[in-house]
Design a protein that fits this description.
It is a single chain. It is built from four helices and no strands. By secondary structure, the protein is mainly α. The chain has one domain. 86% of the residues lie in helices and 0% in strands. InterPro entries: DUF5316. Keywords: Membrane, Transmembrane, Transmembrane helix. This is DUF5316 domain-containing protein. Pfam families: DUF5316.
Length: 94
């Protein structure tokens, strides 16, 4: 989990470097990165499906698959956390 936060911090620093080159503001780039990571985490976790599909997925998958899915989505959410902090800081400082 610490690795995920570290990856998010590295991603935030890369966004700061990219924002100096691209014509978008830092806030827009943080927002785009945050939305992409959150959507990927939702897609991996299966949270975006209906109840019937979720029940069918839980019935057919193995315990290892379920554990991987939950662990991967938590790690992606944790890597999005520094982007959220960067978005909030850039919004109120600029």
């Amino acid at each position: 989990m610490i690795k995920s936060i570290g990856i998010g911090i590295i991603l935030s620093l890369a966004i700061l470097l990219v924002s100096t080159v691209v014509s978008l503001s830092i806030e827009q780039i943080f927002f785009i990165g945050l939305i992409i990571l959150v959507l990927v985490a939702i897609a991996i976790s299966g949270f975006g499906v209906s109840g019937d599909r979720m029940r069918a997925n839980l019935a057919t998958e193995s315990k290892e698959d379920r554990n991987w899915r939950v662990k991967a989505s938590i790690n992606i959410f944790l890597s999005a956390l520094p982007l959220l902090v960067g978005l909030i800081i850039s919004h109120y400082l600029m």
